[in-house]
Specification:
Blueprint: H1 2-68, H2 77-89, H3 94-114, H4 118-138, H5 143-159, H6 163-174, H7 183-199
Helix pairs in contact: 1-2, 1-3, 2-3, 3-4, 3-5, 4-5, 5-6, 5-7, 6-7
Length: about 230
């Protein structure tokens, strides 16, 4: 009898709890359904936005590859440069924007090397520095591009014999430990070693012959004056 009574009590308690649950759903069921539908809508929108973002990134990557890796030989250089600047200015994909900034800087640096005009060379160098600095200042989250831009700034500094500025940029690249094992760090190391050679003062040795002294049968001696920097 006691077991039967306990079973009846447990059954009554279960019925009561189920009644509470059913009552709750009767009172708030519409709100719950609405909430679930809202959550589903948010999830679907997020998935759609992610899909659109991925499609944009793929399209931007395609544009970059067409301009840099598969450059059309029939495309005018100024047209190519203008399109690279468009990529550098877009904000849909920061990685592509940073890569395009570096490509613009490299384009201006190449024009500076090839230009026969001193005025044009100076203008191209200034433009190359502008895009290198833009990469460093605006794309800190893209370390590889920042490292390449710093290497570019260092090479431009070497061109005007500002070796202190070049050393500063190479050293900054070497400090980017998150790029360990990448060729850009090896380039910074090699460039620093080469910089020491460039910084050494240029010495030009001259040799003059002194007139022979003593008997004509004795050997003539030659002495070279000590050279000093700048001669």
């Amino acid at each position: 009898m006691k077991a039967k009574r306990r079973h009846e009590l447990q059954h009554n308690v279960l019925d009561a709890e189920l009644g509470k649950v059913l009552g709750f759903f009767k009172r708030h069921g519409s709100r719950l359904v609405t909430g679930v539908l809202v959550v589903l809508a948010v999830v679907l929108v997020a998935m759609r936005l992610r899909s659109c973002s991925r499609e944009k990134s793929l399209a931007l990557q395609q544009r970059y590859d067409d301009l840099v890796l598969r450059a059309d030989p029939e495309m005018q250089p100024d047209d190519r440069l203008a399109r690279l600047k468009e990529l550098a200015g877009q904000d849909d994909d920061r990685r592509i924007a940073a890569m395009a900034c570096v490509a613009v800087a490299e384009t201006y640096a190449a024009r500076a090397i090839l230009s026969p005009s001193a005025a044009e060379r100076a203008a191209f160098v200034s433009d190359a520095e502008e895009y290198c600095r833009k990469t460093v200042e605006q794309f800190a989250d893209q370390p590889l591009c920042v490292a390449k831009a710093r290497i570019g700034l260092a090479k431009l500094a070497e061109g005007r014999r500002d070796f202190a500025a070049a050393r500063e940029q190479y050293t900054a690249v070497k400090a980017m430990t998150d790029l360990a094992g990448t060729p850009v760090l090896d380039l910074a190391e090699v460039s620093l070693a080469e910089l020491a050679r460039l910084e050494a003062p240029v010495r030009m040795a001259t040799t003059t012959s002194a007139p022979a002294s003593g008997p004509a049968t004795g050997p003539a001696t030659a002495t070279a004056p000590a050279s000093s920097p700048g001669r």
